[in-house]
Amino acid sequence: MTVPQRTLRPMAGREQDHVSPEEILARAQAAAPLLRERSEEIERGRRLPQDVVELLRATGVFRVGMPKEWGGPELTFAQQCEVIEALSYGDASAGWCAMIGMDTWIYAGYLDQAVVDEMLADPDAITAGLIFPVGRADRVPGGYRVTGRWPFGSGVTHADWVVGGCAVYRDGAREPGPGGAPTNWRLMLARAGEFQQVDTWHTTGLAGSGSMDYQVTDLFVPEERSFDFMSSRRSGPLAAPDAFLSDAPGVPLGVARAALDHVRALASGRADRATGTPWPDSYRVQTVIGQAEMEITAARYAVYGTLNDLWQRLEADIEPTPDQQVSTALARVNAFRTARSVVSRLADLVGTASIYRTSPLDRWLRDAHTMCQHILAQEQIVQSAGAHLLGGTPQAPFPLGLRT
C-alpha cells in the first residue's frame, strides 16, 4: 500500500523508537517513487545526496536490526529484506546503501555496552565499511594501532560509523585466530571522520552508492571498539554470523520487479514494427513477460521462504541442518543472477530504445551487472554450498553462516 508523502517526516531520537515493522515498510514503499525521481541525479553525483540520506533515515531503515530490549523494532530477516526490496524498487544505489547502512545494530551486538550506549544516542546511525581483513591492527596497550586501505566502502560518503576488517599483529608478527585459524580477524570501529575517503568509485553500475576506498594510518582504536563474529554478546537470530547478509537479496529483487513493471507499462502503447501487432497480443512479448514473471516470483519465494525458515529455527535455538544452512545463501545468489538475467532479456525485448541513458532499463541493466560481481553472488558461494553439503571444504564459509 502506498503511503502519502506527508508521512515521511523525519523523527528524531526516541520519538521513533517504537515504530513498527509495518510502518517502516510503508515508509520505504512511499519513498520509492521519490527515489526513482532522483535516480539520474544520484547516479551522476556518484553518491547519495544528503537529503536522500535523510529521506532514508526517515523511513527507519537504519534501525531495523535494533533489538526490542533496546527500544527498537527488531525486524525479522524477511522483514528486513522486504524493506530493502521496496527501496531498491525506487533506486538500486539507495537500496544498496540502505542495505549496508542498516548493519549498525547487528554490529552493536558484538560490542562493549559502553560503545552501544554511545551508538544509542542516535538510533538511526549509519554504518559502512568492508569487513574482510585487508587492514592491519597492531596490538598496543588499551587497543590497536590501525593502518590500511579498504575498497568498496558503500555508503562511506554519508556514514556515521565506519568499520574496517583487520588482521591483528602482536610484536610485529601476525597473530593466530581462535581455534587455530591462521589469522586473528577483527573489525575495527571508528567515527567516519577519522578515515580519509579516496575517490575511486567510477563504475558501470551502482554508481550512486559512493562505494569508494577509504584509508587510515596509525589510528588508535580502543579495544572496546573492536570485535569479531565469533563472540556475540547476545543470542537469537541476529547473533548469527551471516545475519547482516539476509537483506542483500532485496536489492536485486527490487530492481528486477521495477524493470518488469516498467516494461509491462510500456507494452500497453507499443506494437511490433514489422507486423503492427500490439505488444499485449504479441506471442513473443507475452512469452518474455510470462517467463520474467515466473522467474522473479520463484526467486522471491525462495528468498523469503528460506529466510523465514532460518529465522524460526534460530529463534527456537535449533541448529540448522547443512541443507538449511546453505539454502539461504543459494537463494541469495539465485536472486542476484535471476535479476541480471531478467533485466537483460527485458532490455533485449525493448531493443534499441533501452540503450539510451534516458531509459531506466539502461541503468537497471548496469546496476544488475555490477551487483552480481559482489562476493555474495559469485561462484565460490555455490562451490562452498556444495562442499558443505558433501562434507568437503568450502572456499567461502562465512557467507554460508559457518563460524569456521
TrEMBL record:
Q: Which Gene3D superfamilies match?
A: Acyl-CoA dehydrogenase/oxidase, N-terminal domain, Butyryl-CoA Dehydrogenase, subunit A, domain 2, Butyryl-CoA Dehydrogenase, subunit A, domain 3
Q: What single Pfam family name could you report for this chain, choosing any that match?
A: Acyl-CoA_dh_N
Annotated keywords? Oxidoreductase
This chain belongs to the protein called: Alkylation response protein AidB-like acyl-CoA dehydrogenase
Q: Which GO terms describe its molecular function?
A: acyl-CoA dehydrogenase activity; flavin adenine dinucleotide binding
Query: Region (Disordered): which ranges?
Result: 1-20
- UniProt keyword annotation of Oxidoreductase present: yes
What PANTHER family does the record tag this protein with? Answer: ACYL-COA DEHYDROGENASE (PTHR43884), ACYL-COA DEHYDROGENASE YDBM-RELATED (PTHR43884:SF25)
In this protein, which residues make up the domain named Acyl-CoA dehydrogenase C-terminal? 252-378
Residue ranges occupied by any Acyl-CoA dehydrogenase/oxidase N-terminal domain in the UniProt entry:
35-108
Q: Where are the transmembrane segments?
A: none
Q: Does the keyword Oxidoreductase apply?
A: yes
Signal sequence: where?
Answer: none
- Please name the InterPro entries in this protein's record: Acyl-CoA_DH_C, Acyl-CoA_Oxase/DH_mid-dom_sf, AcylCo_DH-like_C, AcylCoA_DH/ox_N, AcylCoA_DH/ox_N_sf, AcylCoA_DH/oxidase_NM_dom_sf, Histone_H2A_CS
